[in-house]
UniProtKB/TrEMBL annotation, chains A, B, C, D:
It is an enzyme of class 4 (lyase). One of its GO terms (cellular component) is cytosol. FMN binds at R125, S126, S127, N241, A242, G285, K300, P301, V302, S303, S304, R326. It comes from Lentimicrobium saccharophilum. PROSITE patterns: CHORISMATE_SYNTHASE_1, CHORISMATE_SYNTHASE_2, CHORISMATE_SYNTHASE_3. One of its GO terms (molecular function) is chorismate synthase activity. This is Chorismate synthase. The lineage of its organism: Bacteria, Pseudomonadati, Bacteroidota, Bacteroidia, Bacteroidales. Residues 258-273 have a biased composition (Basic and acidic residues).
């Protein structure tokens, strides 16, 4: 119930601060008997990791989760899966100026108001570093879902004003995986690169949108009226650093449509009734329909920029602030595996609640 | 933990089906000692109620919540506040055709997949009738918040492609309350009426957007990393029938902004540091900043339309379906008090968690 | 999460006060498709009901739960099961003196300290009247468990110093059901009656012990390390009014045993390994073993007695207080169905969590 | 909600297995700003640690919790407090025989039934090793409570049939701390030693009772009707390995008392009404009265004994089993700090829920 635990039956508890010794997580409620593919888990971690794209921060961290519980002889035991990810590359000197300033649009100001305290060294608990925990836990959930025919592909759908117009159903996970910007649309990606190069030169940043498509979810998961599948997905996504919006199916575009345009009529396919179109985004009344589930998550521009900003310091005097240190031009490519991970946790949780995944994998 | 309970310390449990004898709710964790203004509660109920707008369904229900627990001598006792809202105006005959068809984009199909069962009489638990419960509980939360200087105003921000361009800070609750469409912008409202009149003539429907602004929340509420204030608001909003998207602060528009445009620098006002602008929407790092909190919720077009739709019946044969019965052209004006109510539940819950509202009001 | 909701996946939310219009409950997470036997439910209600034994209070209430949600055409729908039990027989006059006194060992004193308020008319929320809700919800859970071969029998094991020495395995539910004192041992029951007659003449009361045996639970339910089966049973039992102790298996007697006496060795029976004895009480390491689960719950003597007590009134002056009104000499026979009900809720919840009962009964 | 997290607002998530690399915990919801006394924490850990009493197992583990989150510059930050306790002294060879046998009355049999799997190396997650996590987390809660004038003293009240007859109010924490058996009564302790020496010679074990007294809790904490203070205490205690029973106040002895004997009349003391006696054990109606809270927890005899037992192996054949390895004669002295720790977690949680401890300590 405390704020660092997420989920109903499958619960992730997250801990750790960006400049402490480690971040980590405890994933409880995971079925016993699943063989864990540590290489696949490392690939997922690698995708979130900063430092290997030209528009991303140069921190260099191996991000190897050390599992201390829940796996025996390569399989899950049913005990909580606990892991640590050490923080190896801390440079507190970069943050010295932060004792005098609240960085504009950064969590420090609000954190101070709440806890009477904020670790100025780089965000502490509000740092994007915390999302490494989600990716590690999500990688476990993804492996579990894979065993039940469910795949999840998140991707960069927009950076700044450059938008990929591929429909979710056409997104190819292989292309996304190979793309440095995690964009399924090579033409859009080329433009995104030009945009990012320009912003980097200006010491500025931009936002974007992560899309996500979930394939293979059977009809019947979701717990109305409050734990509707989209409500739990929305909470999961809006709990990610820098997320500003969530929409599923036709989303905000549905607002200006007519019912006769937006409705998905039924048709029979191979003796089974199913919606002929999928404006709904795979969920009706809070419950999965068996069609692809897809949604978008908007991210704000990175707030830490080197470009000087006029802002008042803690003493009240307005001054130019230029935030040094290592910062992404756009968080979106790195947010892609985080969105994927959180989606996996929600879907696995609801598959367990519905009894569609057993507690014990044989 | 089951799907019909919402909240952490202040919990609403909702029950009832649209064509059963009653819907109702239990609001637990509410402080003792608050005098309840039943007239104000009835006004809130009245605003949600169908049947008094020309674009809304003609059901006629008094919607008087009968309180059976938690109030003694006009004050809350600290015991759960339980109430019933009787369903007086049921016309099951309208729904006869629904035994043969799943209505396109209606919950029945998914509900059947989950429960092996769906009450064809009009949505059962998936009906918008259920939102009356939220409005009644939210009205109690609004009264509690009012005592602590917090006010919440939801409003119609968009219907179809007609958009109100008032900024959230300029929304006047008195104008909203007086507006039949709950729109704070009279010019936009006039256009909206024309649009709705046309759609009604076509037997069609449309969607829209509800905006909401929360004033007076102190800095420091919200429980990162998962129970961030915006995450709980997102879950609350996306649990409302027909909601398709949620955004706060600059929302999806933030995606195409630069950091230097989107950041809110600090300034000193009356000896206190505060953000000079509010692109953030009143929340940073998941915690309130003390500024106005504002967000939007997108709603899809009403799926029940009289305009004939080509769709397959349960037997598989494609046929024209024309949904008779009473249906709104646009749900948005009636969703306004529901959004307000759910926001009130989230804010009151977090005020209690943070200790900013005591369990016992003196 | 608020204090009036119990359970993990199967959640009972309880509401209502003894002297308000009704008590009631919402049982959420109950599988869809179970035919409900209303007569069996009424029989369970009848057993808890006061007024039909010579040592029990003379309140006369029909205690008919009115279901307002969750049942359609005689079967559960998967929606929350909500019910009201009207309070028909209120006699506030009996409680007039209570405005001047806190009744010794009654909840009023503590309730006042918490809520700044206590309904002097007879316990309000702390009244045993609230247990009617548990019995109604438990009756539904019992029907669900019955479908899966699980039966629960609670019984009077001790009244005052009169103890039934039947072992839990020998308790016959038919004898218990027929016994006015719910005692499986007719010789003990005869003595109990003599004891109670004497106490009634003295205007005094006594306590006792309710035993309970649960048969047919498969091995493998319970969620260590905190949601051990016995931990959830203990919480359930200790949440009942007047309960002072819980023990399972050999319980407190195990404290003075040797390991060699207390251990249950294994033996093979029909090709299956099982414990040859059952000192454990059917649970090891927090998980069911497949053997009978049995436990005891101690209840204190009824605190409301007509016999004069020397106690200080709210004004501080010590005076004789004689509590008029209708009171049981011993609560134990009426606590029997409450213990049974709470046990049913815990076992059904864990059967659902373990996936041993599906969410949808075909 | 998953089984390895305990608490409402203050939540302990426990992880780790006895023969994995570490056990550990995450304590979330802890107020910010409390200076942590690591020496006091180590003293608490030391008390639980095996290997320094002649009747306890000879495992030698430093049990130093390594904190990886939640403390900055010696104070709590409001972020989750996460810690690891490495397992240094594993001797899997001792457990080789366990691949062929389920140890009688040990968790392995039930664990296998649930997870299809049990770590035969020594209990895995069901090992008493897991309680080290509770003690570390409890030590933090004890420091928090100390700041608010609340102290908790658990003690050995019974070993085998040797009972200490000190009343809870007379228990002196200094004597308990100095006593090797954690017994407040030196005469009883002397007898307990003789008993344990005899049992050790027989290669047998025994059970016992841990008592606990909580001083300084203000009136008004506890959340009826289900999260009554005693219900949460009972769950906490019954979640401890080997616990078989819980009672508070007069407990099971209340069963045979009369109302007139058991009731606590009120008296005025220094202008304040309070109970003149405390049969209630400091809780009425689920809410603290301001008096001492006291309870007992029964523990079964240690099930791992070297004395040969006749039991069937997994193959079904009955054989003598003599469990080698390091085992306590009686777990009770080591359970004392575990009971204290769990009590501290419950009380701190309820103090936070009631708003009597703020989220931010100045």
């Amino acid at each position: 119930m405390a704020g660092n635990t997420f989920g109903h039956l499958l619960c992730l508890t997250s801990f750790g601060e960006s400049h402490g010794p480690a971040v980590g997580g405890v994933l409880d409620g995971f079925p016993s008997g699943l063989p864990i593919d540590m290489e696949a888990l490392m690939t997922a971690m690698e995708r979130r990791r900063p430092g290997h794209g030209e528009f991303q921060t140069a921190r260099n961290e191996a991000d190897l989760p050390e599992f201390v519980s829940g796996i025996f002889q390569g399989k899950t035991t049913g005990a909580p899966l606990a892991f640590l990810i050490r923080n190896n590359d801390q440079r507190p000197a970069d943050y010295k100026k932060m004792e005098e300033f609240y960085r504009p649009s950064h969590a420090g100001f609000a954190w101070d108001a709440k806890f009477g305290f904020h670790d100025h060294r780089g965000g502490g608990r509000s740092s994007a570093r915390e999302t490494a925990v989600r990716v590690a836990a999500g990688a476990l959930a993804l492996q579990l879902l894979g065993k039940f025919g469910i795949s999840i592909t998140a991707y960069t759908g927009q950076i700044g004003n450059v938008v990929s117009h591929l429909s979710p159903g056409d997104v190819n996970p292989v292309i996304v995986m190979d793309s440095p910007l995690r964009c399924p649309d090579p033409l859009a990606e080329a433009e995104m690169k030009i945009l990012l190069t320009g912003l980097k030169a200006e010491d500025d940043s931009t936002g974007g949108v992560v899309g996500c498509v979930i394939r293979g979810v059977p009809a019947g998961i979701g717990e109305p009226v409050f734990d509707r599948l989209q409500a739990d997905l929305a909470k999961a996504m809006m709990s990610i650093n820098a997320a500003k919006g969530f929409e599923y199916g036709d989303g905000f575009a549905a607002a200006s449509k007519k019912g006769s345009e937006h409705n998905d009529p039924y048709e029979e396919q191979e003796g089974r009734l199913r919606p002929a179109s999928n404006h709904a985004g795979g969920i009706l009344g809070g419950i999965s329909t068996g069609e692809d589930i897809f949604f978008n998550v908007a991210f704000k521009p990175v707030s830490s920029i080197s470009k000087p900003q006029l802002t008042a310091g803690k003493s009240g005097q307005v001054q130019h602030l230029s935030i040094e240190g290592r910062h992404d031009v756009c968080i979106v490519p790195r947010a892609v595996p985080v969105v994927e991970a959180m989606a996996a946790l929600v879907i696995a949780d609801h598959m367990l609640i519905s009894g569609k995944i057993p507690r014990n994998i044989l």
